[in-house]
Design a protein that fits this description.
It is built from nine helices and three strands. It is mainly alpha-helical and 301 residues long. The protein has two domains: 211 residues, Up-down Bundle (Alpha-lytic protease prodomain-like), CATH 1.20.1510.10; 76 residues, Cation efflux protein, cytoplasmic domain (Alpha-Beta Plaits, 2-Layer Sandwich), CATH 3.30.70. The longest helix has 30 residues. It is elongated.
Length: 301
């Protein structure tokens, strides 16, 4: 089921506006947690841009250099986004916290922090609900973690996890600002920044694992594969499917390679006709299988 770009655009607009307001509040109050949150939102903004870039690049038609197309561009940019969350978002946030722990700065007036955090929570909440709605549409009745692991569209679950990290980071930043101001101890603010860095790192590890798996090439799920084999072996010219290999190029583009044992009495012309018929049957049922490579074999081994 094709994914909607609405969660991406929603997150892009929200994160850009929130990043500006967070840096504004950090500049006024000197809050380390707010600086980390500003960095967090800025990285998220860049992530949405990169994912949209990946989607557009993945639509580029096949050419001599890429005979199977550019579908994996989306998976590459999703991997880059995961690295950015870890290296830039998590790393700088943690470093910012350590710096303020060594050289503490007291928060003078937390009012702006609270205002910005409230606005950010509202917009990030809307973005999170939009991403969750899209992800729920795609996964149907599949359990959440199973859907994340089996999803072939990183643009949806990356935004979902980003927004979840945003909300957790905002809660952490609020606690750091509140406790730091209440107890007149800037250590709380610095620790909040370090915790935000750890949250981003944890989210990044999950996304890196999933993005890496997609980039390396995942196969069609077993249920769909058995249905495809059933379609093939239901053809009167086919004796059995000897081997099968498949790989996702993009969420809506699959390569399927088949080694099929045809009935011995068939001529070359008949086998060619059968292969064409089998391709049409499979692509009618599974239109996302764009490339079907068939190697005939008349003898079972």
């Amino acid at each position: 089921m094709p994914a909607s770009k609405i969660p991406l655009y929603s997150a892009l607009v929200a994160n850009l506006l929130i990043a500006i307001t967070k840096f504004f509040a950090a500049g006024i109050t000197g809050s380390s947690a707010m600086v980390s949150e500003g960095i967090h939102s800025l990285v998220d903004t860049a992530n949405e841009v990169l994912l949209l870039l990946g989607i557009e690049k993945s639509k580029k038609p096949a050419d001599k250099q890429r005979p199977f197309g550019y579908g994996k561009e989306l998976y590459f940019w999703a991997f880059v986004v995961s690295v950015l969350i870890f290296g830039v978002g998590g790393g700088i946030s943690f470093y910012e916290g350590v710096t303020h722990l060594i050289h503490p700065t007291e928060i003078q007036d937390p009012k702006w922090n609270y205002i910005v955090l409230g606005i950010a929570f509202l917009f990030d909440g809307i973005s999170f609900l939009t991403a969750r709605k899209e992800f729920r549409r795609q996964r149907g009745k599949t359990p959440f973690w199973q859907a994340v692991k089996s999803s072939k569209d990183p643009s949806t679950f990356v935004v979902l996890f980003e927004d979840a990290a945003d909300l957790l980071g905002l809660i952490t930043a609020f606690l750091g600002v509140f406790l730091g101001h209440h107890y007149n101890n800037p250590v709380f603010d610095a620790l909040a920044s370090m915790v935000i860095g750890c949250i981003l790192t944890f989210i990044s590890i999950i996304l890196l694992r999933e993005s890496r798996s997609l980039l390396m090439g995942e196969a069609i799920d077993e249920e769909a594969l058995q249905q495809i084999i059933k379609i093939i072996e239901g053809d009167e010219s086919v004796k059995s499917v000897l081997h099968h290999r498949s790989m996702y190029q993009s969420p809506e583009e699959i390569i399927l390679a088949l080694n099929i044992i045809f009935e011995k009495e068939l001529t070359t012309t008949q086998i060619t006709t059968s292969i064409t018929r089998i391709r049409e049957l499979i692509q009618t049922e599974y239109p996302s299988i764009k490339h079907i490579l068939v190697e005939p074999d008349s003898v079972a081994t």
